[in-house]
Design goal:
The chain is an alpha+beta fold and 472 residues long. The chain is 31% helix and 23% strand. The protein is built from 15 helices and 25 strands. The strands form nine sheets. It has a five-stranded parallel beta sheet, covered by helices on one side. A four-stranded mixed beta sheet has the order 9-8-20-21. The chain has a three-stranded antiparallel beta sheet with strand order 14-15-16, with no helix packed on it. It is globular. It starts with 12 loop residues before the first strand and ends with a helix. Bound molecules: phenylalanine. Residues 83, 221, 448-449 line the site of phenylalanine.
Length: 472
């Protein structure tokens, strides 16, 4: 049983450009309805940005540098997507395809917040307690002093004050005087524990700049709990490839042109030409824009509109899970204002012998900066940054590493692509150009999520199928 299926069968021949998540999902859904699909994929593997790197894997960039992962057995690095929100259709595919999932720790009160200039990082729970506390104090005292009398009734003000006392852990005087919520230098046991020294003022807390970091999971896309497939994100790709049939996916087949004809589509590729009744183009827009085609000026203009964004990640493998043993961090993310932006700790394999930390996950200017460096330079730069948070072990205990700069990945050339506005070109490409359809996360409001690729695939196969059933 599956959540989505096209009703009524058809046998048309469809050529799908690109074997990423969108292309594979199109082939999977059309295949269920009887279509004869072929996926043309330029790279030597399917999956696109859904890529999990394991020991022995090679990663080649556009300038020719090749890294070979030296990870030990069992270590993996999700170089692309890493987390799935519970409302996303991605989880429905995991269920339908039998891909087991586990919790991804997106927010961890024990992880750190680090702002440049701090002598030591602050735990996320400490940053949150102080921010909530001082903001609650400010508002509670303002309320008490009558500043909100014009806006709120006496009952409302009492309810607000009651809430703020809990929200901020305020004292009877409505003051924030620190809180056990901040955590401890030595946690209570038989004894009281030793508290963390409190900041002196609201001004100190604001200057620490931790507000941005603790709001990271407020949005619906990032709210906990989130999930990941067990064993690596590419479990989704493996399952889709198996369901589509590996013989229907031609890797190493780079498309060189698309021609819409009255009675079909002709796709040329490095090894020849391929005829089909319909085509679904799922390459990134900036690559489709460079492909010779006869689909017309508005299509070309639309394909040129989304702006590719650089994004990068670095996987750091350690032989000791010091973040668990020394720092008591079990999964989650440290937020920084350094060029590494984030440090991710693994949400699986707790207490096992080794593990992999994501040493940076950045985008735009920071990702461009790292992307211009060699792998060794990226690693050294990221280690210098991470040492500010974790100390010398961050460098000395490193075993191996792999980095990806998505803007330098062949046949991808970007982390994701964003529309300056969801009008014009975006609308143009929601419709087929003759017999050629377009699909991908970039054709949804879920850019940079696999859910976008999957939602787009469902829409396009629905449109295509209703046309085929109508016989037009
Ligand atoms: N999906 C990616 C992530 O989880 C990129 C992204 C970040 C997309 C933030 C939207 C918002 O990091």
């Amino acid at each position: 049983p599956s959540d989505f299926s096209l009703s009524g069968r058809a046998a048309a021949k469809v050529v799908i450009l690109g074997g990423g998540v969108a292309g594979l999902a199109c082939a999977y859904e059309l295949g269920k309805a009887g279509y004869d699909c072929t996926v043309l994929e330029a790279a030597d593997r399917a999956g696109g940005r859904n890529r999990t790197v394991r020991g022995g894997d090679r990663l080649t960039e556009l300038d020719g540098e090749t890294q070979t992962a030296e990870f030990e057995e069992g270590t993996y690095f999700n170089a692309g997507p890493g987390r799935i929100a519970p409302w996303m259709v991605t989880l429905d595919y995991c269920r339908e395809l039998g891909v087991p999932i586990e919790m991804f720790v997106n927010n961890n009160a024990s992880a750190y917040v680090y702002t440049q200039g701090m002598t030591a990082p602050i735990r996320s729970r400490t940053a949150r307690a102080d921010l909530y506390g001082y903001v609650a104090e400010l508002l509670a005292k303002a309320t008490d002093a009558g500043a909100l009398n014009q806006r709120l009734t006496k009952d409302d003000r009492e309810r607000l004050s009651e809430f703020l006392r809990h929200f901020g852990d305020l004292g009877p005087d409505l003051g924030y005087n620190g809180s056990t919520r901040r955590g401890f230098e030595t946690y209570p046991g038989v004894g009281d524990g030793i508290p963390i020294p409190a900041p002196s003022s609201l001004q100190d807390v604001l200057a620490a700049g931790t507000g941005r970091a603790i709001t990271m999971d407020f949005g619906y896309e990032q709210a906990t709990p989130m999930f990941q497939p067990v064993g690596g994100m590419d479990s989704i790709v493996t399952a889709l490839v198996r369901a589509v049939g590996p013989d229907r996916i031609r890797t190493g087949t780079r498309v060189t042109g698309v021609k819409d004809l009255p009675d079909g589509v002709e796709v040329t590729h490095r090894g020849g030409a391929f005829r089909a009744d319909y085509c679904i183009a799922t390459l990134p827009p900036h690559l489709l824009a460079r492909l010779p085609h006869n689909l017309g000026g508005p299509v070309t203009a639309a394909l040129r509109t989304p702006v590719p964004i650089a994004a990068g990640k670095l996987g750091l493998e350690y032989g000791r899970r010091w973040w668990e043993i020394d720092d008591r961090i079990y999964g989650g993310i440290t937020e920084t204002d350094l060029d590494i932006t984030h440090i991710w700790y693994p949400s699986h394999g707790y207490h096992s012998r080794s593990g992999l930390v994501v040493g940076y996950y950045n985008s735009e200017e920071n990702a461009e900066l790292y992307g211009r460096l060699s792998h060794g330079e990226r690693r050294d730069r990221a280690l210098t940054q991470g040492k500010k948070i974790h100390g010398e072990k961050y460098r000395s205990e490193l075993r191996s590493s792999v980095s990806v700069a998505w803007q330098r990945q062949p046949y991808i050339e970007g982390g994701w692509a964003v529309w300056p506005s969801y009008t014009g070109g975006f609308t143009v490409l929601q419709h087929p150009a003759g017999r050629v359809y377009f699909a991908g996360d970039w054709l949804t409001r879920l850019v940079a999520w696999q859910a976008g690729a999957l939602e787009s695939a469902r829409k396009v196969v629905t449109d295509l199928h209703s046309r085929v059933l109508q016989g037009t």
